[in-house]
Give the backbone structure.
Amino acid sequence: MLILVDTKNLALYGGGISHWFAPLLAAWIVDRPDARFLLVGPSFDTAFLPECSNWEHVSLTWPEWLPRSFRHPWYDNVLFPRVVRRLRPDFVMSPYHDVRIPKGVPSVISVHDLCLDELESVYPRRIRAYYLTLLRRNLRQAAFVLTVSETSRSKLIERYGVPPDRVGVVYNAPPAAFDGDHGAEGTIDFRARFGLHGRLLFYPGGAEYRKNMMRLVQVFAKLAQSYDDLFLLVTGENNARWSAAIAGLPNVLSQRIVFTGRLDDADLRLAYSAVDAVIYPSLCEGFGRVCLEAMDTGTPLACSDLPVMREVAGDYAHYFDPYCVDSMCQATAAALSQGRRHPVKEMRFQTVAVRDAFLCAMDRFTEAKP
């Protein structure tokens, strides 16, 4: 059997979709030695993949020569479908919903959230129009749809009319590097590397439109009036969106917002161990990976009161209204004063359970294994 896998997200992004899909793809390749996997997309680091002969990367050049706003439409609607038609696979799997799969080719897509639909005022109109058009088209065509929470599954069934037997859930799992205890020495070294002292509030959620960064900065500024040793630690770079959010702060506060740059999984684990609390103020999510990582490391958590956050974090988190700065401050102050907790490792989010759910779903739409 010839299985074509869309690897665009693995090549271009390092966020939640890649973290979810990379270990599952590696497990799938090992689990199906009888199949041949064509990994189609721009060049990416394949070090996480198994050393076996049943996969190959089919390079598809990202159209850098086009203006930025035309690159995704050209790649998704012209380049990728053209390669699918040329390679003639038996089956296509895409870990997102934005590439056009030619009609007549059996496919499984993943829909990680419906934030573009739910947050009409947050996303630019042209971005919403483009991705929602492809979402509706691919939902009609796909043989099966994977999503990452029961909350998202219910929304797909209710809002888009996807039959319940065509939607399955494969949760996220914490990175393998989160296993074990890195000890006090590792956290001390991590703090020293970034010049950190005092209380640390950690935000590892990215800078995408729905992440609520303006209110996050307002919360930090307000809490800093009560905690004169408070620092905000942020993963990633100080990009244009962060600069806009921080612009109104006095220098004495803006200097206490520390950007780590991109962290690998081991350093991310150290960051969770080194901080006093995590804040996750997203306006919409499909899963809530930050909740899972905080739980897995025993780090106190304050997060948005969204159905999916409660599905993942249960009574672990301090919840707040993400549109109300006062509510956010109260919950975050409670998390900061709580002290570290025992890690919570629910079976449904562990690597083996997540992997088995994914492989079971894939086996439904590919040849029966010998």
About this structure: Residues 18 and 201 are 25 Å apart (CA to CA).
